[in-house]
Amino acid sequence: MLNAIFLADPMVQFLVIVVLILLVTSYVMYVSLVKKKNKVKEAFAGIDVQLKKRYDLIPNVLFIANKYMEHERTLLEEITKLRAEAVKVPADLSKAKETINLDGLISGKMGQLMVAVENYPQLKADQPMMQAMQTYSEQEEHIAAARRFYNSAVLELNNAVEIFPSSMIAGMMNLTVMPFFEATETERQAVDASKYFNK
């Protein structure tokens, strides 16, 4: 009897087809959003791995630099403190902003340290220091690549979260806009090398 009503009434057929299309479309958008969210998680985990490698390198650089850089004690202590804070932050997307902020601060301070090294000829001639700086520089390139991958994944997710109609599904899933890994104000400012060379 239900089949007879369905086949006889074109309006019922139309409504059933519309409901089916809406359900399939909603499911496809849901799946797409889940994939985008997981891609952001994967990209953030990649950054976390690269940052951990950087944090493991920092003590070696500081240990070697500590022998020569008596006048940079405050900078070395600031880097040590920031590293300790960064290591404590869990690798969780909910802590992305905190990770991004600490990463920017550490990058800025390590940049200052690398410029300060130029003021110490003995340190520049130290082979382990040169190897540590080379390794650190290579690690920064890996971090930059991981940031680009993360930012690409975040762009896709943010577009889906903000653009209708997937924004409706994203709202039901409690998905929100994720932060990009951007240069901090400290990183954007030019390093004043004169303060390191005029001692």
What would you note in describing this structure?
The chain is mostly helical and 199 residues long. Helix content is 80%, strand content 0%. The protein has helices at 2-8, 10-68, 73-88, 96-117, 121-125, 127-162, 166-172, 185-188, 194-197. Helix 2 packs antiparallel against helix 3, helix 2 (10-68) runs antiparallel to helix 6 (127-162) and helix 3 runs antiparallel to helix 4 (96-117). The radius of gyration is 26 Å and the shape is rod-shaped. The termini are far apart.
Average pLDDT figure: 86
**What is the helix fraction of residues, given as a range?**
over 70%
| Overall SS class | mainly alpha
- Give the C-alpha Rg: 26 Å
Task: Count the beta strands.
Answer: 0
Tally of alpha and pi helices: 9
Q: Which consecutive residue ranges, at least 5 long each, have pLDDT under 50?
A: none
User: What coarse outline follows from CA principal-axis ratios?
Assistant: rod-shaped
Main beta-sheet annotation: none
Return the string of H and E elements: HHHHHHHHH
Portion of residues in beta strands equals under 5%
End-to-end C-alpha gap? 95 Å
Distinctive features:
single chain; 199 residues; mainly alpha; 9 helices; rod-shaped
Secondary structure elements and their pairing?
Elements: H1 2-8, H2 10-68, H3 73-88, H4 96-117, H5 121-125, H6 127-162, H7 166-172, H8 185-188, H9 194-197
Helix pairs in contact: 2-3, 2-6, 3-4
